[in-house]
């Protein structure tokens, strides 16, 4: 059971103060009865709640896929930079979602956002072995020797030994290389630091896949949408 005003506020129908006035005005019904008390207890998943003639459909969790743009930080709040939450419509912000893991400020691509803490934990915890796939442009020629080093486990500048990673060379020359990298961890600047460990620099990085869920290529950078039931089932299968 939850307070009626909390349920309606979470769905973007107003602040608790505003909803108190709305209820007193006789605009809210619960199971066919006028709800004069905005603080009354309701079962949002089973009670029929109508506000101003419109029946509401409550959901506790929200699941979003974003194509994160360059220059935006993966945080819920930042006093200097624009955050991924700032890109959301108010109707989605009211659920107070947070990024699943993070992408660096200058990294683009697939970012998941949710307010489902349990799912978030499963997706970012290394013990569940969820693949994160990245496309990267590298400033130098990537070699088969680098592939072997990634598979064996790269040691970062702070001494941390990364788990086995898959490095696939798409094309390589002395002018630079295009590669795909698959990791199951999410250390700070991990992909960039892994390449630094082999004497190379990442000049562009885009996450293309999380688990087996690919980025919707129809999403422009900065755009997002809710996950489909099928996509959510994929993520919950881990």
Give the gist of this structure:
This protein has 238 residues and is α+β, with helices and mostly antiparallel strands.
Structure description:
It contains seven helices and 15 strands. The protein has 238 residues and is α+β, with helices and mostly antiparallel strands. It has three domains: 2-56, Structural Genomics Hypothetical 15.5 Kd Protein In mrcA-pckA Intergenic Region, Chain A (Roll); 63-125 and 226-237, 2-Layer Sandwich (Alpha-Beta Plaits); 132-210, Alpha-Beta Plaits. The two termini are 30 Å apart. The model has no long low-confidence stretch (mean pLDDT 95).
Features:
single chain, 238 residues, alpha+beta, Structural Genomics Hypothetical 15.5 Kd Protein In mrcA-pckA Intergenic Region, Chain A, Alpha-Beta Plaits, 3 domains, nine-stranded mixed beta sheet, four-stranded antiparallel beta sheet, 7 helices, 15 strands, 22% helix, elongated, RNA-binding, EC 5.4.99.-
Provide the number of structural domains. 3
Largest sheet: 9 strands, mixed
On the 0 to 100 scale, the average pLDDT is 95
Low-confidence runs: none
What fold name stands as the CATH topology of the largest domain? Alpha-Beta Plaits
Order of helices and strands: EHHEEEEEEHEEHEHEEHEEEH
Shape assignment: elongated
């Amino acid at each position: 059971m939850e307070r009626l005003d909390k349920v309606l506020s979470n769905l973007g129908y107003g602040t608790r103060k505003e909803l108190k006035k709305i209820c007193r005005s006789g605009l809210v019904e619960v199971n066919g009865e006028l709800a004069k008390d905005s603080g009354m207890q309701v079962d949002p998943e089973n009670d029929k709640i109508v506000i101003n003639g419109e029946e509401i459909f409550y959901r506790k969790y929200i699941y979003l896929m974003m194509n994160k743009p360059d220059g935006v930080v993966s945080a819920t709040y930042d006093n200097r930079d624009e955050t991924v939450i700032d890109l959301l419509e108010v109707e989605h912000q009211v659920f107070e979602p947070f990024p699943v893991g993070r992408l660096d400020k200058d990294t683009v691509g697939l970012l998941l956002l949710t307010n489902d803490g349990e799912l978030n934990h499963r997706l970012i915890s290394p013990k569940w072995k969820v693949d994160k796939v990245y496309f990267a442009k590298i400033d130098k020629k990537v070699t088969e020797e680098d592939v072997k080093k990634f598979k064996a486990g790269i040691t970062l500048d702070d001494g941390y030994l990364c788990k086995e990673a898959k490095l696939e060379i798409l094309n390589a020359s002395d002018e630079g290389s295009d590669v795909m990298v698959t990791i199951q961890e999410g250390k700070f600047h991990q992909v960039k630091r892994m390449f630094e460990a082999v004497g190379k620099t990442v000049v562009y990085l885009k996450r293309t896949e999380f688990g087996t869920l690919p980025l919707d290529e129809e999403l422009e950078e900065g755009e997002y949408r809710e996950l489909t039931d099928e996509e959510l089932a994929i993520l919950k299968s881990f």
